[in-house]
Design goal:
The chain has 456 residues and is of the alpha/beta class. It is 38% helix and 20% strand. The strands form 4 sheets. It has a 7-stranded mixed β-sheet, with helices on both faces. It has a 5-stranded mixed β-sheet with strand order 9-8-10-11-12, sandwiched between helices.
Length: 456
């Protein structure tokens, strides 16, 4: 997996006006307006933009609009909306591309530009490479549109409402009398989730849905699931759902206050779909980060599985290529390809509700055959990700740990797609073993001088 200079696994991301600037956003807009305009044979390119609730999202929105319209593209603004909402509208309204301004689960001072192709999927790497070349001055000047060829911008809040309406159509039965908690992370789901659940009849309790530009993901949402756990127990709710900043991921909390992560969601939905003959190829697509316990449970259920690199982009590519209907990540990016082309947090919560209601069980009762292995993940900030991962001593230690773990665990080292981090993950029978092996690898990375905190 090769990362671009600016674009990682989830778009162009960085701290606002530090390593992702308004000039970058303007240049991205200039190139996309020109690129799609060339393909339209005299017609204007059409681009739709959504954003999350970060302070800088408005700044980047205006910069992108300036670049796009200067290159002759027409732009429609959905305003604050989840990433999957932009993906849905891009696809069904046949826009040339969509843009989502968000840094997902990152702090408010970070932001990002996610580009969505006309099929509603994440943009192809070849186009991202051309954008990078333009930003670096390798493609020369792009002509400016003039006179009547300058693009225009229109309000498209109606697109967000249609996305909300679409989500409502996916429920198989009423949610009446179900007590549901929603943690909107002070992010994009604040404009969508409550309306969907209330329209479907749920008794809905909402927290962290008052964004102020700086409180997105701040002690709330799917990255701080403990907040929803406490809320579900205190309010005696049947289930709770927590979203990240742009609502393309969802984690849940059951009636006992226990976390339902992405692996558990894949398990419960995979079993449910298979029982109804709706799990295409009897296969679930996972990433290399999914828990060993999930695979052992799938084996018992006679559900096949595939493993991809981390990133819902790679999960969806596998699903599209092989015709699979369910896939996702432990972090809560879950894709139901019959209904969406990307992870969708609110859609995921609706499908979990379906499993719970159709099975006529409490959600805590749906995991009796699933044993999740203890797992420990530690991030090490490094000077060079490739050098750290390829270090001969590190590789030898990893091989030794793999041998010691055998079939009762595993170790995984991988490079972050968006940050200068090596992620060290160990699964084993006990928390103590996880800690032991993670510490061995982290200590070696520091001793060899790869860590920026190693003092060398």
């Amino acid at each position: 997996m090769i990362m671009g200079k600016y674009f990682g696994t989830d778009g162009f991301r960085g701290e606002a006006n530090i390593n992702l600037t308004v000039e970058h956003a303007y240049q991205v807009g200039r190139f996309l307006g020109y690129y799609y305009g060339k393909q339209k044979d005299g017609e204007r390119a059409r681009v739709v933009i959504g954003k999350d609730t970060r302070r800088s999202s408005y700044m980047f929105e205006y910069a992108l609009v300036s670049g796009l319209t200067a290159s002759g593209a027409d732009v429609c603004l959905m305003h604050v909306v989840p990433t999957p909402g932009v993906s849905y509208i891009t696809r069904i309204d046949e826009f040339d591309c969509g843009i989502m301004i968000s840094a997902s689960h990152n702090p408010f001072y970070d932001n990002g530009i996610k580009i969505i192709n006309g099929n509603g999927s994440k943009m192809e790497a070849e186009v991202e490479e051309q954008i990078e070349a333009y930003i670096d001055g390798k493609l020369g000047e792009i002509p400016l549109a003039t006179r009547e060829n300058i693009g225009r911008t229109t309000d498209y809040a109606s697109g967000r409402n249609r996305y909300i309406g679409y989500l409502m159509t996916l429920a198989t039965r009423s949610f009446k009398n179900v007590r549901v908690g929603l943690d909107c992370a002070n992010g994009a789901s604040s404009t969508v989730a409550k309306y969907v659940f209330e329209a479907l009849g749920a008794k809905t309790y909402v927290i962290n849905a008052e964004p102020d530009g700086t409180n997105i993901n701040d002690g709330c949402g799917s990255t701080h699931i403990e907040v929803l756990q406490e809320f579900v127990k205190r309010k005696n709710l049947d289930i709770g759902f927590a979203y990240d900043g742009d609502a393309d991921r969802c984690l849940a909390v059951d009636d006992k206050g226990e976390v339902i992560d992405g692996d558990k969601i894949l398990y419960m939905c995979g079993r449910y779909l298979k029982s109804r003959g709706e799990l295409a190829n009897d296969t679930v697509v996972t990433t290399v980060m999914s828990n060993l316990g999930l695979y052992k449970a799938f084996d018992r259920c006679k559900i096949k599985y595939e493993k991809t690199a981390v990133g819902d982009k790679y999960v969806y590519e596998n699903m599209l290529e092989n015709g699979h209907s369910l896939g996702g990540e432990q972090s809560g990016h879950i894709i139901f390809s019959k209904f969406a082309t990307t992870g969708d947090g609110v859609l995921t919560s609706l499908k979990i509700m379906e499993v719970m209601l159709e099975s006529k069980q409490k959600v805590s009762e749906l995991f009796h055959d699933l044993t999740i292995y203890p797992q420990l993940l530690e991030n090490v900030r490094v000077k060079s990700k490739p050098e750290a991962k390829a270090d001969e001593d590190v590789c030898a230690l990893v091989a030794e740990i793999e041998k010691e773990l055998g079939e009762d665990g595993r170790i995984l080292l991988r490079e972050s797609g968006t940050e200068p981090l090596i992620r060290v993950m160990v699964e084993a029978k006990t928390d103590e073993l996880c800690r032991k092996y993670v510490d061995q690898v982290v200590d070696l990375l520091k001793r060899k001088g790869h860590s920026v905190d190693s003092g060398s």
